[in-house]
Fold these 4 entries.
Entry 1:
Amino acid sequence: AELLPKGHYLCTGLDLYLFHEPDMMASMALVHSRIRRVLIGSPRKDGALISGEHHLHALRALNHHYRVFQVSRV
């Protein structure tokens, strides 16, 4: 089964699970893809969402925002 309708490339309403926090370029690609939420396993020094100083997902100047969560093992 396809997650997105044929011919669509936007990820509106989808969640993304990552082992490591994405860098600036990947984080901006998530803005362009219109992802809904990003769940991160571990932060990185060069990360652009939770560990860095940018918090790109929350910049007011951007036309799309997504929620970011850090998850941990139980």
Entry 2:
Amino acid sequence: MATSDTIDERNGIPDEKKIIERDPSITLVAGAISSLSSLWLPMETRKSMALYAFARVLQSLYNDARQQEIWPTRGGWLLDTLREYGDSLLFMLTTGQVMYAYVAAPWSLPHSYYMFIVNTGPMHLTALQAMRRRCSYRPLPVEAMQRHYASAQGVRHHGPFPAAALGLRDSHTTETVTAVYAAGAAGATLLSETTTTTRGAVDAVRNAVLLPCSVLHPQATTCKRAAWLTFRNAAQRTLPVYGTVFGLAALYRGRKSLEKPVATVQHVGMSTARSTVFLSSFVAACMALVCLTRRVMPREMAWAYWLLAFVASGTIFIERKSRRAELALYVLPRALDSAHLCAASAAALLRYYCHQPDVLHPLLVKAVDMLYGGLARGTSDVVRHIAPSDNDDADDDDADFSRGKTPLPV
């Protein structure tokens, strides 16, 4: 409502600037109404815009708190460290969550963002699916693994497919492995009717036996070469992207860039090289640490990939200080989105598992049984819980996700 101090004295009509300054809530209402125009955009685009805006709101709240002196400006070494390295720590924490989702919960990430990580990341889609199934005590996609192993020249670099290292003793074919899981429906007499190969396959799933390095990078003879190839492939993909980003930023500055063309070209080149080395080093460090975990972890554990991503993201210090906060804000909304989806899904699924298991997907019930109840039961129950459905080959989370479908969170 217009008052005497918001009326333009020259023409007697309300002064919009004065009204906005007097009542900031008007801008809140206007912003909320104008955001409805985003309903015309695709859902994934709307979600990305909302997450990015939310990250910027958090940044603005922090800056506002500092201006209002709500955030302490002086303190001990902890506050001093947070002021100096808080952006880097935020990037490392959020990257850990995103890389955990990349391995264990791809359904919690937007499809385009997930595929960007897969294309730039250290491991093939098949290796990721095998790792995720091992972490959740599910049978491996043996046929897909064998095809990838052969196409990546794994036989040339490492010898025959490492079935024994995967717990599939004396078995280099899919038929024997498939028969193991299909026989799970036979009940308590299963182990007395099968061979040591069956017992080895059952134990491998139950104990989440670590996937060997030869399965994770069949294209490389050693772990060092795998890290180098990861670095090189990531650099080849990201160099044009960063060159375009920094080049357009220079053009946006207009006359200032033209006044000093040599300095501008040098700045663009150095910034492109620095960012390319950062991102390539990050994915190479992830690959090296994954190989290292083969020597120190007792079994496949999803949380370990959060930890190794946190350590690998220390490469953020390669970037300029001014870029670290921007990178942290880029990853933050994805990490928050993934974390809240994972937490909400876990809470809901555990509630249904405890009270209404009949409404859950049978494969999910088997996986949760394996985690919480199967290990305390007889061996035949364990086999029955990990036995896949008849169309287990069709249960390919990564294949569905790469086609834009959202797989079940199992």
Entry 3:
Amino acid sequence: VLQQALHHIPNPNAECMLRNVALRLGQQCVEDAMTTLPDMPVIKAIQKISWAVASGSMHLVHGSNEDIHKAFDKPGQTKLPDSEDVQVCKEALEVLTVSL
């Protein structure tokens, strides 16, 4: 019974070691993230995705920026984005925020 009870008693040394490893790993991840920033073509591609999805025309991702702007100029002809499109647009804007 005592042997089984020892497995359930928290070990402060193990918790301290786990915390230190997590802290070092977190610091290394921050350093790695700061050295690999997205370049301008990646940022423009994410921006284009968010614009195309917001217009309700995902096929415009492969079009020009002018085509995407024209989709917003015709409010009666554009369809409203569904919930999945809104989620994609939201994710793209969050990625842009983190990237910039």
Entry 4:
Amino acid sequence: MGSKIGLNGLDNGFAQFHHYRIPRDSLFNRLSDVTPEGKFVSSIKNDNRRFGAALANLSAGRCAIICMCTTNLLKALVIAVRYSGVRRQFGPDESEELPIWEYQLQRWRLLPYISAAYAIHVFGKYICESFYDYSVESVARGNSPENKILSGELHCLSCALKPLSGWTARDGIQECRETCGGHGYLTIARIGDIRNDHDANLTYEGDNNVLVQQASQFLLLQLRNKQMGRKVSSPLNSFDFINDMDNNLKRKLTVTSVDELMNPKICLDAYKWLICHLLVECDRCLKEEIGKGVDPFTAFSNCQAYRLRNLAVIFAEHATLQYFQLYVSNPSIPREVCDVLRRLCCLYGLWSLDKHVAFLYEGYVSTPASVRLIREAIICLCSELKDDAISLMDVYAPPDLVLNSVIGVADGQIYKSIYGQLVRWPGTFEVPSFMTEVLNHSADSSDNVSSKL
């Protein structure tokens, strides 16, 4: 099928059959089957539920992609942070230039992505382990009512977290490329290859903008359960707070200092309000559309922008932050490590929340002062984490041979590495073949030049 933007180590092709009969025993028939008489049968009578159950089989692939996304982001961050610690540019006087990592803007551009990479990596691993346990349980004991509930939650989480991890990595990798300036644009810097290889994660195993629709639809189903007086069941505790929706909607942001925001619970409370608020707004929008005589399919489509799409993304951010907060609270983690991870957790929560300020103004915050405090806290955390960044990246950094970036070498000798790669590049010290043509053409032309005078 030809070359692609990236991942050209994987070949893509197609299979074509012409009058070839597929035997019945080769059918994927766990959910549906065709009898020898040619009759279609299924244990799931509802067409939409059957289709959803078939798509749920893709959850395993989505879980793997979540891990791939964070791996790509971490590789780019390793390169950008190491480069930032070595590259010097300008200074308060002419005596010494400062490493660009000393500049607030450089840290503000990269450290939030470090916090996001850690948070999504930890939560993604948990989702993969939960899906594995669910699969083993299903094989051993069948699809029990409890397992059906867990299956729905895992499907919702994978449909929301894959887009969040993919889009976060996409934006983070690009930020890494730009923070490395012209050196980051070199092929031998490797960030371009990482960016191109990652791009496929945004569309395969379900286009991200389609997957978030499945997640938001599942969350609306939980709202229906709540409205009908049923208890919302969430084995992984990702949306059980919907049971307490009325109290969550009464919450307000009342912090008066940056120090108060250094508690992840503040962000988690804000996210609970956001999700409950958007659920109400999405429900209202859908009812308005249907009230106009629009069919349910079109109504759902007309409520995507600014509503259902944002609901799914915010849900994924809350679930990620919630589990990361539990992870960093583990008493077995050494205190000095826990302190750093806690700052990362706060930074991820505040940085993510800052993207949704417009929604917060719809009822959660009443004055610009609260938003200013959130942004001051983000800058403060970026300053506090400044000296930990290299170590945080070294935790996940692969060997130089695997990272394969001249500006991300572990010993910090980036200029030596760049020069060593350039002098080994074929044809570096040779005159380009086209120059002979250019020079000969210029010589011939000069013989025929006549003065306009």
